[in-house]
């Protein structure tokens, strides 16, 4: 049988059209041929037309079907999708069959393979290294734009692979890529996990091989994007086919970041153990391998939590080396003690207060920008801080001047005295801080320390909570408001009560109030109780408000939620919380402006690199208190300076005051008027700390004085410091430093 061609179909269609035209003409003639019988003729014509048109339509459909078969040979007709599916009704028409699903999958695989092949062919291994090879300083600036400090350059020194102990090499491979010598540059499982997490917006995942990490280090940037990951994979496969595994491992060990500004395992060995990498044992090598997971999380010198993580992962790395046959169980048993690294070296140029300022700004950049620690250590950034040099110098001078009266050589109580202080503007800018006597001698920052009890400087938060939230004095009674004029029992040794009755301690006794000096004040308003630092009404107010609400009010004002608040007992309202001076100054600033607004403290105005601005988050402004509540707290704190517990702060520097106990030495003989100052002194219940927190209309400043046992790191009482008995030192030293500082500013 001869195969029908397209030419045959066209000829057949021409004949069909001619036949249809002829029939139509005949029917038309019949309709007019009989003058006397018009209706029958018309009916006959209609039948003729209907018959011929129907035949034409059937023939045309058949021709089209034959034409379709001509364009789809039998092999292709089997592949042509039957979609929507014939012979199915409803939703089933749109559900693909198994064959259709397999066909679609096959096409996708072929298309993906083709795309990957083209991309692989067009991707070349870059000839130039990325910014990891460029050493630059990070430059910090004062608030006025003048240079404050330069930190850098990065610390790196290449070391040939044959000088790196095999135990160190295998520790790294055990931690990062145990199959390094057998893989092809990539890990399909790790790639799938990383791509899935990035595509779904999850946390950045590991899983990259050593080859991939090396490619990222020296050829690409650190952005966590799908396109960068895809390029990394292609270059890794090409590099694995082009160079030896030893070359890749050599490059990886000499370019990886280990923290402390150290790039490469040689500088890491110097930074953490003060020795050449060739002298490291497997235990020390396992610790350095631990740092590759993130030095910011595993450097033990940063925090106790880091130390715990480092020990756990160090143990895991050593066990992993045993599992892969690169460390015997017998030798592993000899490494039971964590190889503690040495303390971080202090970069030059950070002496005095500068190091504390740089650390504070660096921490802010790390927490509020997209700049990773590793990238930041590459240098090249300009950090413009909020710190004002005149205030920093004045605060340091005030501390030094007051502590000059200590005699640690002859008076044991004068030893180990420390001071933390900070000034924060009402808009959140950290203007000055005092972190210690010298960053080179004492690296930890006492302005940001959070172990010192706030004592009675905590009272404004209790007062603010009562004014904002009201009180409950009887069980099942509604919450009722209090005002500055609300009267409380100010007598010493008064019972502390709850809505259910007296508050009983664990030893079965009713808890009593304890005023300073055991003084009884009788019925006293809340405003007077705050201004004169009367403990009893503040304790009872805290119980009436609810200690959970008091805690929340202090957090809303500016204290960190993680502050060590201690147990919620009646003493809670007397300042068992342990905020830092920076946070206390910031929280008091919430009341200084009388608006009730708060901005978390920040230390960096902007960051640039190569002339371009780097995005950095600025704290949001919150409104925890109404202007009425903030104004009422401010009134009480101004009363404290004018006629209450802090009245010496308003008298500082006046004629006849210099040289008296508790008064600042030096200054120009002038002082700010107590009318524009507010503040409150505070003493911890166990006399381990003394505070003064005060403010003017522009900024709030907090000063804490305490002692720390250098062997146990426990707080010691301030009794006897400076030759002052009882609570003399805890009251005098913080206030003297604060007033001396404020006086020097004029």
Tally of DSSP β-strands: 19
Which shape, going by the Cα principal axes? globular
Strand content: 5-15%
Please, how many helices? Answer: 25
If you average the pLDDT, what whole number results?
83
Q: Report the C-alpha radius of gyration, rounded.
A: 40 Å
Measured as a percent range, the helix fraction is 40-55%
Unreliable stretches? 26-49, 653-671
- Distance between the terminal alpha carbons, to the nearest Å? 115 Å
Biggest sheet record: 6 strands, antiparallel
Structural class estimated from helices and strands? alpha+beta
Structural overview:
By secondary structure, this protein is an alpha+beta fold. Helix content is 43%, strand content 11%. It contains 25 helices and 19 strands. Helix 7 (210-218) packs across helix 9. The longest helix is centred in the N-terminal third of the chain and has 34 residues, at 38-71. It starts with 5 loop residues before the first helix and ends with a helix. Residues 26-49 and 653-671 have low confidence and may be disordered.
């Amino acid at each position: 049988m001869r195969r029908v061609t397209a030419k045959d179909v066209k000829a057949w269609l021409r004949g069909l059209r001619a036949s249809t035209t002829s029939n139509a003409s005949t029917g038309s003639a019949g309709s007019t041929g009989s003058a006397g019988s018009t209706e029958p003729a018309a009916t006959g014509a209609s039948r003729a037309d209907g018959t011929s048109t129907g035949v034409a339509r059937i023939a045309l459909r058949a021709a089209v079907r034959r034409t379709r078969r001509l364009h789809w040979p039998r092999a292709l007709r089997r592949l042509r999708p039957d979609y929507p599916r014939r012979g199915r009704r409803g939703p089933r028409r749109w559900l693909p069959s198994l064959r259709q699903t397999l066909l679609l999958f096959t096409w996708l695989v072929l298309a993906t393979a083709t795309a990957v092949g083209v991309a692989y062919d067009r991707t070349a291994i870059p000839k130039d290294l990325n910014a990891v090879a460029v050493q630059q300083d990070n430059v910090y600036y004062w608030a006025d734009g003048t240079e404050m400090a330069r930190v850098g350059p990065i610390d790196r020194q290449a070391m040939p692979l044959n000088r790196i102990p095999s135990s160190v090499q295998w520790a790294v491979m055990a931690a990062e890529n145990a199959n390094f010598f057998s893989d092809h540059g990539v890990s399909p499982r790790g790639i799938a996990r990383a791509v899935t997490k990035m595509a779904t917006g999850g946390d950045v995942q590991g899983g990259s091989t050593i080859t991939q990490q090396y490619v990222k280090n020296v050829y690409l940037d650190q952005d966590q994007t799908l396109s960068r990951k895809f390029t990394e994979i292609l270059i890794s496969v090409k590099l694995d086919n082009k160079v030896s595994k030893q070359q890749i491992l050599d490059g990886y060990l000499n370019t990886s970041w280990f923290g402390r500004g150290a790039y490469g395992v040689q500088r890491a060995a110097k930074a953490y153990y003060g020795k050449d990498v060739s002298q490291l044992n497997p235990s020390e090598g396992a610790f350095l391998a631990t740092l590759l997971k993130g030095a910011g999380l595993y450097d033990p010198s940063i925090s106790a939590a880091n130390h715990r993580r480092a020990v756990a992962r160090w143990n895991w790395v050593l066990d992993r080396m045993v599992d892969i046959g690169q460390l015997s169980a017998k030798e592993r048993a000899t490494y039971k003690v964590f190889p503690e690294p040495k303390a971080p070296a202090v970069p030059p140029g950070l002496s005095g207060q500068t190091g504390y300022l740089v650390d504070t700004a660096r921490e802010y950049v790390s927490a509020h920008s997209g700049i990773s620690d590793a990238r930041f250590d590459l240098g090249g950034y300009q950090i413009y801080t909020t710190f004002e040099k005149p205030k920093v110098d004045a605060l340091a001078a005030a501390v030094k001047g007051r502590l000059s009266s200590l005699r640690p050589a002859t008076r044991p109580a004068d030893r180990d005295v420390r001071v933390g202080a900070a000034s924060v503007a009402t808009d959140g800018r950290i203007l000055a801080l005092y972190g210690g006597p010298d960053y080179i001698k004492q690296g930890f920052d006492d302005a940001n320390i959070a172990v010192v009890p706030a004592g009675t400087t905590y009272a404004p938060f209790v007062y603010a909570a009562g004014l904002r939230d009201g009180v409950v004095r009887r069980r099942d009674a509604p919450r009722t408001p209090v005002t500055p004029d609300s009267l409380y029992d100010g007598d010493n040794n008064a019972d502390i009560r709850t809505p259910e009755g007296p508050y009983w301690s664990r030893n079965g006794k009713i808890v009593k109030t304890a005023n300073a000096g055991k003084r009884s004040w009788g019925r006293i308003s809340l405003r007077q109780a705050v201004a004169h630092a009367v403990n009893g009404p503040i304790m009872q107010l805290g119980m009436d408000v609810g200690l959970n609400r008091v805690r929340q009010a202090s957090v809303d004002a500016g204290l960190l939620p993680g502050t060590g608040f201690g147990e919620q007992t009646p003493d809670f309202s007397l300042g068992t919380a342990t905020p830092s001076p920076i946070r206390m100054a910031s929280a008091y600033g919430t009341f200084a402006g009388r608006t009730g607004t708060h901005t978390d403290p920040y230390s960096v105005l902007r960051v640039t690199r190569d002339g371009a601005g780097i995005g950095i988050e600025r704290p949001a402004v919150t409104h925890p208190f109404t202007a009425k509540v903030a104004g009422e707290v401010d009134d009480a704190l101004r009363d404290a300076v004018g006629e209450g517990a802090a009245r010496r702060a308003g008298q500082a520097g006046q004629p006849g005051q210099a040289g008296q106990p508790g008064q600042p030495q030096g200054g120009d003989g002038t002082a700010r008027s107590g009318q524009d100052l507010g503040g409150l002194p505070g003493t911890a219940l166990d006399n381990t700390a003394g505070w003064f927190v005060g403010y003017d209309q522009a900024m709030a400043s907090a000063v804490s004085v305490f002692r720390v046992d250098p062997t146990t790191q426990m707080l010691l009482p301030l009794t006897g410091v400076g030759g002052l008995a009882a609570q003399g030192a805890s009251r005098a030293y913080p206030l003297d430093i604060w007033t001396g500082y404020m006086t020097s500013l004029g």
